[in-house]
Specification:
The protein has helices at about 35-40, 65-70; strands at about 5-10, 15-20, 30, 60. It is of the alpha+beta class.
């Protein structure tokens, strides 16, 4: 089974947790953004409904940014 959580940080957009089985416990404020299937779909640069930069399935605050931004 593929690792279907593609977790990005709200502040730094780190890809360290792109492809994990579960959300690491030291991440906070994690919310699901889109499905795994949707995250893999190609987005046209002129698509007004989606951004090519939205590669993640979940968005939260990583431990490093939590230290900086609280």
């Amino acid at each position: 089974m593929p690792r279907e959580i593609r977790l990005a940080c709200f502040y730094c957009d780190t890809a360290d947790c792109d492809g994990v089985d579960e959300v690491p416990p030291d991440w906070t404020e994690v919310e699901e953004f889109q499905s795994y299937a949707a995250s893999l779909k190609e987005v046209a640069p002129d698509d007004p409904t989606r951004s090519p930069l939205d590669w993640y399935t979940h968005l939260g605050v990583c431990p490093e940014c939590r230290k900086v931004y609280g």
